[in-house]
UniProtKB/TrEMBL annotation:
The chain crosses the membrane at residues 7-29. It catalyses: Cleavage of hydrophobic, N-terminal signal or leader sequences from secreted and periplasmic proteins. This is Signal peptidase I. Belongs to the peptidase S26 family. It is an enzyme of class 3 (hydrolase).
Length: 189
């Protein structure tokens, strides 16, 4: 009987630890890795980072210049269950053991917020008539457009720091705030 109680105690401790770890990964902090070169020279391919997901709990909104992790599937509504299942399905550890190489999470920088008007001329981003000074970009952007983009309510416009090698809001459009799943916190190692 004493062995059974001790065994149940160990099982309870292990299960409690697993549940706590899942809560942390799903709702608070999550390790992930940068895939590709769209954030060069700020973050590099295969670099391991930690993201802070607490803005989802407190309904915080990203600020200009924040490096965020977005769910690139902007054509669908994001649900509570996406917040629970996606960190388990699309993470560093699982991708090593499965063939799931789909990259739905992108690391990008917030360039525009709701109501902003954006233009792209002469290798520069112009927000609300003011040319942005962006010391973090890898090289001048080749992308040009005569269109003025107005960022809709409850959305952000994101771009990679390596503008010439980035799929971002120029491709998928503005990103709903509920598709911003976290904010870059720090690099591992």
């Amino acid at each position: 009987m004493k062995i059974l109680r001790e065994l149940l105690g160990w099982v309870g401790t292990i299960l409690g630890s697993v549940v706590l770890a899942l809560i942390v990964i799903i709702f608070i902090f999550q390790p992930t890795s940068v895939d590709g070169h769209s954030m060069d020279n700020t973050l590099h391919d295969k670099e391991k980072i930690i993201i802070n997901k607490t803005q989802n709990i407190f309904h915080g909104k990203p600020k200009y210049g924040d490096i965020v992790i977005i769910d690139s599937r902007v054509d669908r509504k994001r649900t509570f269950w996406d917040n629970v299942i996606d960190p388990l399905k699309y993470n560093i550890l699982v991708s090593k053991f499965t063939e799931n190489t789909q990259q739905i999470f992108w690391v990008k920088r917030v360039i525009g917020k709701a109501g902003d008007e954006l233009q792209f001329k002469d290798g520069k981003v112009i927000r609300n008539g003011i040319t942005l000074e962006e010391k973090y970009i890898k090289e001048p952007m080749r992308y040009q457009s005569e269109n003025i983009i107005k960022v809709p309510e409850d959305c952000v416009f994101v771009m990679g720091d390596n503008r010439n090698e980035s799929k971002d809001s120029r491709v998928i459009g503005p990103v709903p705030n509920d598709h911003v799943v976290g904010k870059y916190l720090f690099k591992l190692g």
